[in-house]
């Protein structure tokens, strides 16, 4: 019997539905002990507030990008997990929306530390599959994005490297658009099965424990895969994080966010935040993907409520191109009740 712990890498562009899939796996009654390793892009982390309350263990890695600077952290976390007496049945790694999955996968095959400790070869873990979640509405825009010479188009890399493609958000596109996206995906990666879904609702047997990662296929397509090579992200995508204590005027902040995304949504790929609205004990979760925006509260079953002693800290992050840090900060702060009274 194979006693190695299967690792599933969940990748996909910003806002495609990775956390939605993780939440879905966590709430499904599968009887497995799962550890989740989360890596988030952006100056201010908010995903800790977006992942459902769970008995499973969630490890945050927010000091850099998993495919570049924090591979060491990933290895350390894996060693820690593997030393446990009560071993996990599965490990999920959610990458940032801008990660290249290749160097993450490579970690399990070429890293000296993993080899020394016998996790590979010594057979403690195995890479089960790379799942790439695709936003059916926005993916074409990102696949078409031109990048500077020498840099990678992360959306293309994520599709190319997938063992399974979860074509998510099919509720947002017509049949014609969906077929067009399917063709685009097939042209980049003809080998990966495409699973269509909305809200990442898919049969988990088709995505977990599937033994789909095939080193031979990768080596046939990318002979240098096992060589530790440099890669460069496109440098025009940046993030602006905002942290501010205090209560917000609900109407004002909603008006500000809708106007901002309406005007700048082509450049703001992703926005999200945890908000404290005046007169409410609920924690509000704001989610934006380009121009689409939603605001839900813990009363709708999203996130975790404010704890009685918790500091009412608003946390937001904007990820995209041409972000005006000063303007975003000033216009957000103008939505605080205190700013209005001043
Ligand atoms: N309409 C629609 N919205 C969806 C679907 N799946 C997820 N969303 C929404 O899309 C937004 C982004 O979803 P997430 O799961 O946070 O995406 P993500 O890939 O984890 O985002 P990042 O970690 O920021 O890259 C949220 O507002 C979700 O509720 C879907 O199938 N249809």
From TrEMBL:
<dbReference type="Pfam" id="PF07683">
    <property type="entry name" value="CobW_C"/>
</dbReference>
<dbReference type="GO" id="GO:0005737">
    <property type="term" value="C:cytoplasm"/>
</dbReference>
<dbReference type="InterPro" id="IPR051316">
    <property type="entry name" value="Zinc-reg_GTPase_activator"/>
</dbReference>
<keyword id="KW-0547">Nucleotide-binding</keyword>
<dbReference type="GO" id="GO:0016787">
    <property type="term" value="F:hydrolase activity"/>
</dbReference>
<dbReference type="GO" id="GO:0000166">
    <property type="term" value="F:nucleotide binding"/>
</dbReference>
<dbReference type="Pfam" id="PF02492">
    <property type="entry name" value="cobW"/>
</dbReference>
<protein>
    <submittedName>
        <fullName>Cobalamin biosynthesis</fullName>
    </submittedName>
</protein>
<dbReference type="InterPro" id="IPR027417">
    <property type="entry name" value="P-loop_NTPase"/>
</dbReference>
<keyword id="KW-0143">Chaperone</keyword>
<feature type="domain" description="CobW C-terminal">
    <location>
        <begin position="237"/>
        <end position="336"/>
    </location>
</feature>
<dbReference type="InterPro" id="IPR036627">
    <property type="entry name" value="CobW-likC_sf"/>
</dbReference>
<dbReference type="InterPro" id="IPR011629">
    <property type="entry name" value="CobW-like_C"/>
</dbReference>
<dbReference type="InterPro" id="IPR003495">
    <property type="entry name" value="CobW/HypB/UreG_nucleotide-bd"/>
</dbReference>
<keyword id="KW-0378">Hydrolase</keyword>
<comment type="similarity">
    <text>Belongs to the SIMIBI class G3E GTPase family. ZNG1 subfamily.</text>
</comment>
